[in-house]
Predict the 3D structure of the following.
Amino acid sequence: MTSTLDRPAPVADGPADAAARPPRHRRSFARALPDLVVYVALVIIAAAIVVPLLWMLLTSFRTDFDTVTRPAVPIPDPWTTDAYRTLLGGAAPILRWFANSLIAAASQTAIVLVTASMAAYALARLEFPGRRIVFGALIATLLVPGVVFLVPNYLIIDRLGWLDTLWAVIVPGSAGAFGVFFLRQFFVSLPGDIEEAARVDGAGDVRIFLRIVLPLARPALATLAVLTFLTNWNDFIWPVYVLLSPEVQTLQPGLSTLEGSYQTHYGIIMAGAVIASVPVLVLFTLAQRQIVESVANAGIKG
């Protein structure tokens, strides 16, 4: 056994070792560098999102003369609400366009939630012949560009007599495959023990779907509702083709008519854009908690 006296004494760091080791503040900076890079990237991304919105809001309070003479300066000089008074005063039926967009987006969202949830539950839980083939065909439609369906949908809407009505911008988008795929993946991730226990107690598929599955799928339903509402609210190309009368127009194509042939009223256009963004911000604020919960649950289960 080696005694304490026989053990070699620890060798102190010499001048060469001390010189080779980086200073403590450099080591701390090296450890904090990845976090610093992430924060800088987040600030840049946030600025890229916020600055255009802020520019839009400030431009809506500028005069036409100010936007032309000082296009690079976002601060209004002078501040004015003429653009909002012009829009809301009847120069354009923007309130009618706003109501049409709200009705179309809310109606399509409701239809998508009902149809997509039922189809997704059937594909996720019910056993029937050809289930995999149906799901594969559904996924295949997601690979087809949406513009391919423009002419067929137009012909169908024309045959149904829905041209120049809000039905033309509500029904076609209600049969999208994305909602079924999105909810089906969420239903598959749910544990089946709860449903089996309900069946033991005598509950049928409809009762299980309404009382157990849908309450558990609230985060996914809220996320799908926001995505569907935004898709319909921001749609431009399809309403231009099927909505012909000014009083039936939705907000996005209606705002494009505010730009004249010889003069552009930037303040009025930006004021209309601000009005169009209000429902989106309100909807996201109300559904933010459910969206975050849906993403968190997907990350845990995935």
